[in-house]
Amino acid sequence: MTIKINYTNKTINKSASNLVLFCDEKYSTNGIKKYVSDAEFSYINDLVRTIDIKKNLFIFEVNSKKKILLISIKKSLKSYDIENLGAEFHKKINSGKNSEYFIVSDSVVGKNENFLGHFLHGFKLKSYEFKKYKTKKESKNILINVVGTKNKPSVQNQLKFKALEEGTFYARDLVSEPGNILHPDEYAKRIGSLKKDGLKINVYDEKKLKKLGMNALLGVGQGSIRGSYLVTMEWNGAKNNSKPLAFVGKGVCFDTGGYSLKPAKFMEDMTYDMAGSATVVGLMKNFAIRKAKINAVGVVGLVENMVSGNAQRPGDIVESYSGKTIEILNTDAEGRLVLADALTFTEEKFKPKFIVDLATLTGAIIVCLGSEYAGLFSNDDKLSKEIFTAGEKVEEKVWRMPLHKNYDKLMNSKNADVQNINYVGGAGSTTAAQFLQRFILNKTPWAHLDIAGMAFSKYGGALNSGGATGFGVRLLNQLVEENYE
Question: Cβ(245)–Cβ(483) under 8 Å?
Fold first, then answer.
């Protein structure tokens, strides 16, 4: 599907087909009279008296060639309500091969700031499809003409929304790719291509990782014929040399579970076990496109967790980049091993203002929070509050979960400094986060987002139609824009 949005200051031609008009929540029609013919106004006015005004959108078939869409704008809408309204608009018109619509910006009512910007942003986000491997290509084009002189998003806001959409779609594309295509070798190459957007990219291959001592990360990938990588992406958009904001992502391109083998049922979904890294990549692309006035670094660990004669075994002990030793009791608790090395490296090399990591880390967080909230774990109240507030504003919600020293005893190993699972049982997400916290060595403000329930949706959500969601790109962009730019 191709969507094109044109902005023009021309007034609407009353004979234009597929007209989109706005009214208040009571469906008062006086404001739309000047945009339609007298006959059309009389027709709509009669029908409006019979409709359920609790609904947001109605389509009036004026004749075989013309539709008028009337959308009510309720009072006190939040930005995500407006975006959801745009997504609903997309669902209503997403039929037929080609279509053209005229949105009359002057008909927007109320005092909702940047209404059309958010409305069209929701429309675009809902339009995402991943049909790259369909042999029968559908050719569908939607042209949106925004006409009028008022209520249009500024050029700056248009760029902001475009950057968010491109970053989110890039993350969704990465998560949607099958494991035979997006293995670590290919993933590292794709990230390298983002140099064209202005990001500084460094790729650490196995030789460099061995030299650095990243044995926790390397251990996860040693059973695969593919390479293992740590990739850093730097964006320097601040005018000073301020400390960067750091974002770290788990990039397990496919997770069999290793010798602690996963059940065959739904194992195909493990292509999305790299969704945390995809969010980081999409976020950094977004920063670069919109020329964010910050310094930021993204760090992703890219591995494939496979079974082979060279794969990691339960009972193995590895020395991490931090120097701490880890006993591997379960090879399916692999994401925390990747993050352990990535977190310590990020803290030591970049000395960031804060670190936020994202990972599809535990099934336990889905048991706890379902697909409505990501789990938030943090050593810093201020950062936690900022992330929570940002999530509420863009409706990518998080819920703070506990960290406490009493959980440490569940992760202490008899044979090494720490073990990678809690064998006693219970508190699966918290003990995983407690494990990660041990690799933040210098008390850097840190937050861990367990997005296992949020990264992929079989049924679709308000702003996606099923599949990869790109969760976290808009959340973390809001965090940065609101607090650090």
Answer: no
CA–CA separation, 57 vs 161, rounded Å?
23
| pLDDT mean over 355-384 | 98
Question: Other CB atoms closer than 10 Å to residue 243's CB: what's the count?
Answer: 14
β-sheet bridge partners, residue 448: 357, 377
Strands 66-73 and 229-236: unpaired
Contacts of 139 (CB under 8 A, 6+ apart): 97
**Secondary structure (DSSP) of 210-224:** HHHT-HHHHHHHTTS
Contact 23, 70 (CB under 8 A): yes
Flag whether pLDDT at 137 surpasses 80: no
Residues assigned a catalytic role: 262, 336
Q: What is the pLDDT of residues 22-70, one digit of tens each?
A: 999 999 999 999 999 999 999 999 998 888 878 899 999 888 888 999 9
How far is Cα 248 from Cα 446, in angstroms, rounded to an integer?
A: 11
Domains, in order of start, for the chain: 2-151 (3.40.220.10), 160-483 (3.40.630.10)
Q: What order do you get walking across the sheet with 66-73 strand by strand?
A: 2-8, 141-147, 98-104, 19-24, 66-73, 57-63
